[in-house]
Amino acid sequence: MNMVSPIRGLILKDLYNTKRSAKVLLVIMLVYGGISLTSRDLSATVGLTTMVSLLLPISAFSFDQASHWSSFALTLPITRRQLVTARYAFSFLMVLCASFFLLLSTLIAHLIGNTDYLDGLLTFLLSISVVLTVLSITIPAVYHFGPERGRMIMFGVCMAPILIIVAGSKFLPAEVFSSIRGWFLSQKFLRILELDTAIWIGAAVFLIFSLLCMSISWKISCKIVERQEY
Amino acid sequence: MNTYENAVQVDSLCKSFDDFQLSDVSFTLPRGTIMGLIGENGAGKSTTIKLLLSLLQKDSGSIQLFDQPLEGDGSALRLRIGSVLDEGFFYEDLTPGQMAKVLSHCHPRWDSDHFNALLRRFQLDPSKKFKEMSRGMKVKTKLAIALAPHPQLLLLDEPTSGLDPVARSQFLDLLQEFIQDENCAVLLSSHITSDLERVADYITYIHQGKILLSEETAELLHRCAIWRCTLEDVRELTSNQYLSVRKNAYSCDVLIGDRRAFLSTHPDAILDPASLEEIMTLYAYKAQ
Fold it and tell me: Is B131 touching A (CB cutoff 8 A)?
């Protein structure tokens, strides 16, 4: 009997499927990376890598749906939990690849003397955290509602913070914001920290929070898939 | 290789959907045999196969595979099952060679040499993308994938639909080869009843979610017969002398369930052999 790892096989399948679109995306990312480096502004690269790491895992669901992969996979000695775990592992892999590209761009920008690499590293941490948090909401939604509606939910999740801030600034009285600011300023632990340190701690906490979200999300997805019929 | 008596034993299996109900389905598939699952579209054939694969969860009843109860997600028992479902699972840009690499990680019993030999036998190119393949080639690839891990049980849902007669004949030859090993068995759902007459040892007929019959093919074909007669002849029969009647423009086709008993009461009647297709269609008249 062979030594097998279904999760490895399932990730390989996703990588094969992603290969074609990945080539096009890589070219776009290199072009954007070049523009960002010459214009001394990495925000375009940040936006692109965030978008790519969100879209590739969701596209994998669309490929699966089009080919009825899940119903075939579950005729093999593969458990539903392994099916879900492989998709989360693939998502992590895509996030890491896109973030690695961002990190590389940051380091190159620093080496040619255009940007502060600490800012770049902070952006790298924050973009991983944002993507993982969004995926942790989107992946269970895709399992439950399917890739089409799941994609809409993903855009909703991405837009939600902006909408909340815009709506808040329009409808809430200014005193609410000043009282929130006052609460933060009154916290002793924040006062003893330098601003930079507080930002780095905040980024680390956000990363831990996003990983926790992914862990909870994986459990929810497992429950959804275990109840699904094909 | 694990030995067993019955590859599949289903008792009082029930499954309800909003618009369809599989009721009280029972049948047994002994090892070393092929069972043909017949029935019209939407009769419950695919539902039954999906329940055996744990793709659907049963409401009640019991399923035993290889004499072991099917419990949980059934992944351990699926190690010994190869299946071909009606729905495709092909990623259009992938090739059989790439799928083989994926599946070699997914299936502990995957045999790459056997898979490659099957591809050669079916004259399939391992580097050809699925989107470039004909329907027949896709079916053959599915079958090669199902057979590559040396399964003991094949569950095949409409595998021959869309195949030309030559390809179908090759496919049936392969099934008969597969069944030479007495530890193997096949459950084959098909609309092409002539194929089943050729290879199936047992026939199970599902109609509107219920089993109408499940018995040996030879016994079924031997005991059933068609009496082509007039409506007046039919009126003289008692209800226990026949199974169903189809009224044509100028005559009637009467499905006789027990040829010997019928001839003892109607010695002058000329009975035609009943094909599986005629039994299936006339039984459906009875059920209606």
Answer: no
